[in-house]
Amino acid sequence: MSDKTSLRQREGLIFERSSPGRVGYQLPPLEVPPADPAKTIPAGLLRGEIADLPEVSEVDVVRHFTRLSKWNYSVDEGLYPLGSCTMKYNPRINEEVARLAGLAQLHPLQPEDQVQGALALMWELEQALIAVTGMARVTLQPAAGAHGELTGMLMIRKALADRGEKRRVVLIPDSAHGTNPASAVFAGFEVVEIASTAEGTLDLAAVGKRLEGGDVAALMVTVPNTLGVFEPEIVKAARMLHERGAFLYMDGANLNAFVGIAQPGKMGVDALHINLHKTFSTPHGGGGPGAGPVAVSDSLVPYLCVPTVEKAGSRFTLSYDRPKSIGKVRGFYGNFGMLVRALAYIRSLGRDGLKLMAEGAVLNANYIRKGLEADYHLQYTGPSLHEVVFDDSLQAASGVKNVDIAKRLLDYGFHPPTMSFPLIVHGALMIEPTESDGIDELDAFIAAMKAIAREVRESPDLVKGAPYGTPVRRLDEVRAARQPVLRWQARKA
Ligand SMILES: *Cc1c(COP(=O)(O)O)cnc(C)c1O
What we know:
- By secondary structure, the chain is an alpha/beta fold.
- The protein is built from 17 helices and 13 strands.
- The radius of gyration is 26 Å and the shape is globular.
- The two termini are 34 Å apart.
- The site of pyridoxal-5'-phosphate has 15 residues, from helix 7.
């Protein structure tokens, strides 16, 4: 371990740097009599003693947080191969545009005639997403993918209620993202899991069988699925569902695999959410903000969120004239800054650029697949689209698990891939490079993964003890889960 590392390990919390009387900034003396807090703040909100805040200087604060920021790994630093997450580079032009004063300083309550530009932008983004998906209309309100799922499922529920039907069941394949069943339950449905086929795809026969009950409201399916495999039976599934009066909900978070190449609207999809913070590059992670617009087919247009943005001649309006709407799912315009970034990205790439983006993502995933096929096991060997799911079964004999491989990758300077997901692959290592990275970075990643596979063969304990070069090494995960320490508390003298 280098000295640098041990120094970093002593970084501690800002509270631990506190020294009585040390201050960051001196306020000038008051020129007016001090206000009596008892007269301005409700008694119940007044504290008896000052909070235990750290007493530190400005330079203490700047250095502490600057050092911490250097521990971070981001998509601006290197490959971020989290599968099912599409961690792509966010071009700086998006940030420039989102910071334009005319956009960033709008007030959401300004009257329509003062925000024509913002409404035009939202209208244009809706048109772009309609063009990409082939769907009838789009609501831009939902704040994330999971929020979009909930929104789409609420529209389906309302459409069923409108027909006087009480269908309760939503079918979800076992390869689904965990948010799918959660959203269906939140929307008031009951989830029935459908086991995937040996190829890892949707089991059409099982769906058909469950449809006979007449109580199925919808099928929720990710396309391509979380194995990065296209669902070849999706059109047939849509037809079967529609014949039985059920809806097809598509989780579109993996849209990066086929933008400009295929349209869910032509597959018979009734609703899908799009993760702007994945496919369309807006920043992602750290809890958001994101944006999960929902695109719908004609059958669900009456239930769209209000307001919708409508265009009359050259004027844009916010329309609430939608009597069957599910209402609002988010205040004001949704996460408007994300909408700006997504449109900037779409406009800067254009139709051909978007197609190239998807092709690049698929090419990169397959380049990694080829590069690592000899060293890591593939449970599902069907063609990969934008991501590839290896597992740790070749390494298992040495007692090395996917988590050890992921930890060792940190020593090689890479963010690990998604682990242990999808659940149908034991010991999964799910890699999605996206189109952002060039061949040099992909080669370096493949070389690191190959070097780790060699280490597992030659000295597995080395891998099991990783990481060695990070500020914090292995955590006691069980203790962290059972006895979490989430708050700093002053040691009483
Ligand atoms: C990311 C993702 C989601 C959820 O999106 P959030 O924006 O994180 O809520 C849902 N499904 C799939 C397949 C995803 O990859």
